[in-house]
Q: What sequence folds into this?
């Protein structure tokens, strides 16, 4: 039934490559099927003004797509002179998701600046960004600990994200582009390793969805995120 | 327990004033407690390029806050030269919520341009905007029908929105600013008159939330939205 | 002769509502006929760099129109990414007019930030903004005095503004939109309570105007401003 | 009494050089004392959208200052990415002043685009711009007539401008920078060759001005503008 | 002597991977040592206005760096709202270099839009971009021919680029970052397969360079570009 | 053969006028044939952040063209809201060229801000800007020495620039617009008084150029720059 022949509750193959580039403190390539995102975590010795007084640190995220990461070329945001509403929405989401599992007070007066850049898009770029960025942040934190810059990890739990949706009447896990552009309901879910919800963003693209459908989608998301967190753990061991 | 002395499942008083200004085809002032938003719906005889080919119409929304609608003055976005990520996120949400109940094909080659401007903010401005804007759109549609410009209403159902959250451990309905700025979880819910979900956006501000908490919040939201839709109906009869 | 049936030297009904919103130190709704402007005065504990050295304070003003305050929808300046030349001209005028009657040295190192937002436009929005903003500034100053933050009022005199013009060959007071868009000469006059001129801005829209016409217009403006200042005084007593 | 030793009613020396640069249809250098402005009038075969329907033409103006035309360097507006409010105010004034004496219907579907660029500033740059630009527009119109592109001149009258002000209590004509930055009242006056007023913009910089002072200033302006128009006529004969 | 232990006339290892991403008509990853750039060529069915009249096509290029492609994080240009002067200079250079070997008339009314995005920077990103982009353009042209959209290849010759410079007094080929940031003279050379110069851009960073040094640098560049073009040919065969 | 009847190795007449305007510390009008550029050098008592730590000074340049300095009107960059890529490329070149002969450490914590504004364009505006700006910087340095603000001149050598190109198959010196817009190869060369190269920027507009052509062009450039430096010396004596 699914264009990709997957089962309704089947994730796309996930691949997480650490140290994908050499400069960043954390540098991860995450591949979820054909969606590929470079996630870097940079440690900066400064914090934004609104954090200054707290004495603690900050974590922020930016997101972008290479112009031809998409099926037809998307205008370069740097050339247009502004980030789209969609881009801002996504980068705010990534930042909130990661901050939910990081104890900023333990970072010291530093910012972990996450950049998620989509090299190839095939649906689910924002959720892949969150899942990959968590590993990059983890590596940046290890870098801080290895240098003795912080004593204790500020990371409280794992966090990962996945999209779920209702495609041709059936709740499915991990939408690819073919599904995403034709589904009735699209929901992005962010969860922690201990199973708590950090974000649930469901949108009816076609007809409204019912409480029952919502429950089915959340069940799928929980399953998918468990598997994604397993993949993160495997990558961090590797 | 609540700063406003309300019951956990109690909405703030809602007041919807139609024809609040004289120029717009639909012009509503909605007041939810101390939150006051002017919602206008303007009928424009043009559609954006991506709609042109469809032959149908479009509905879009913009959102703004008067600089001193807030406790401390917020910079004027027109003076800063751009809309914040928050503003763009909200106006995209309002547009999606209203389009979910409007059959754009029946609008003809027209745009209904919704403007939601917050005169006074006390929490819940985005949900108040949706609830008020629906009434403004309804009035604009009546204006089109009265002039014989369209034969049939493109409005398929009512739509309204409310925020819910977990404040001091208790799920509560319709957060005001005092609650919103101190809650653990904040969820905005958009539903139709027939009880379908259009948007669910839940965010853990502090610790993650459980499936059980989510269910409690959705129950509150359903109750609140039923009451808000009743208020819309009363206003449209009045 | 006038579309509104008014006498040539007759103002539109003026209504000044104080404390129109709850957050600002001064918050006024001024209505001049169908023109309605929310004027707030915010007290900020900072001054712009060019004032820093003086030790005194500053007063500045911003102006905006809600997109559908006008007969046809005007683009939202925040969405377009810049303020129009007209907006900047108006907000500079409002700022100069108010500074003419405020002794900035007596404000201390503070800025009174005035915002004039037009809710409904029917001609004369810039002059209504000045007249209403004066009352908002007065309330903000009273707020400062009441809290013991300044000892003495920096307000030296009242200030108000009105438009005058030549409509169908006749000098008339307080142009509404129907007159404004068809008049030959349009003049905005700002005067103090003691009858001094702060600004005179006359523009020939059609044929040039004579010295005699100018004198007739100034006579009307003096009469109108006397009445507007009386309305300000009544509002401040009320 | 005046820093320049001039009489109160004495203009600075005026010099108008036509064909100052070789590309523009009209290209004038105007020097009013040490203020020097290059004024060009370019004939473009297009009109802005709002004029399209009229079948006639348009005249618009832009204004700029070279960064070091001023005593201390002013930021380059192109580098800052926007024109200041002052710049926009001035270029709108120049455009209105010139349109007041040009019958746009007789231009055909063309725009006369005026550019006024200040090479050296010593007060009165906006009024010098208007006086010089009129001569440039006159030359551009002659160019159109010489090529048989229009049959009849659309220019109805001469137009020129001057500043007047109250300096150390005395009304004076044609303020230079030393006076302008220390005067109580500053007024820019635009008049036609037949003595009609096109613009009067008076501002009290210090204390408000009286009706009597205004009359004295207008008398000075009338005298000055008569002399400036004589200089325009002499230049156009030369 | 060189930080990388290379001979003065030795290129870094070059690797060119075609079909690196799946959406673009040409999609190449070029690696010159640690410098890695994704070069895509997108075929668009439109041309910019200034090309419209020619009946032929256009080729344009854009360039960007991922924020953490560099040793310390560089601000994201999309977030800052504009491209730097450096970026614009580079993308103009890439476009000119490629257009020098493409007969635009043979493209038909199409644009080949090249995007060069630096994934990891270690010196020579602009020259690597040109060398890689040529292969991407070649693939896009093959795509056009394969679909019968054009009959004949518009590509007249190969083109590649390399940097040369004087490092510690010695002319060297293909500067990496360690050399580039400490060299006296830096020169970027673009040449065709037949050995003609397309661009020579030499800059003395420290002391001026002599004619003799220039000749030595050009000799190195000729050698390097011959090898790079051999690598392009090998990749296109592969 | 040349449109201007000049010999292939003949410069256009050069005229350098110092003290062209009165405010700047260095203010030069340079005329190369019909190309006229105002070059000012302003001394500012501040340095950009990246220079702060060095204790030394900085020199930067900005470039602009009056809208009608060109044959057809060019849009005003200040009105469009950004500088073109060409403008940025030119102003970066001017800055680099001048910094090559100035010992910034000897400037003290000051910036010399150069502005080159083209009054009339006829080819070679960027090279004329460099040649003229050097004289303006020299005057600004003399101003600093005369006031005792620096003890010793930071100027190490003269610097000037010229364009050369291949026009109808013949290498020619100092291209004017008629040649520049029809030449095969265009090269801008910046050299010091002692004959070292600071910048060489050659571009094949049509077919690629050979090593032999490059040598012929560099010979012409050396001759031209010797003459331009002689003109600078004469001007500085005058």
A:
């Amino acid at each position: 039934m699914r264009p990709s022949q997957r089962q309704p509750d089947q994730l796309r193959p996930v691949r997480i490559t650490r140290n994908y580039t050499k400069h960043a403190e954390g540098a991860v390539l995450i591949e979820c099927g054909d969606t590929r995102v470079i996630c870097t975590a940079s440690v900066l010795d400064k914090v934004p003004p609104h954090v200054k007084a707290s004495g603690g640190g900050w974590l922020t995220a930016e997101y972008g797509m290479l112009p031809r990461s998409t099926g037809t070329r998307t205008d370069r945001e740097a050339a247009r002179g502004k980030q789209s509403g969609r881009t801002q929405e996504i980068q705010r989401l990534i930042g909130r998701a990661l901050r939910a599992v990081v104890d900023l007070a333990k970072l010291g007066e530093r910012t972990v600046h996450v950049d998620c850049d989509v090299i190839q898009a095939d649906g689910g770029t924002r959720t892949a960004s969150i899942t990959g960025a968590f590993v990059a942040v983890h590596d940046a934190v290890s870098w801080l600990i290895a240098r003795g810059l912080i004593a204790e990890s500020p990371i409280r739990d794992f966090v990962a994200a996945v999209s779920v949706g209702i495609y041709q009447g059936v709740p499915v896990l991990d939408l690819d582009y073919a599904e995403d552009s034709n589904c009735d309901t699209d929901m992005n879910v962010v969860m922690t390793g201990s199973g708590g919800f950090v974000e649930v963003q469901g949108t009816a693209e076609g007809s409204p969805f019912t409480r029952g459908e919502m429950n089915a989608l959340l069940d799928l998301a929980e399953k998918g995120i468990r598997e994604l967190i397993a993949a993160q753990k495997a990558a961090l061991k590797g």
Observations:
- The beta strands of chain B are 14-18, 26-32, 35-44, 58-65, 111-120, 159-167, 170-173, 185-192, 197-204.
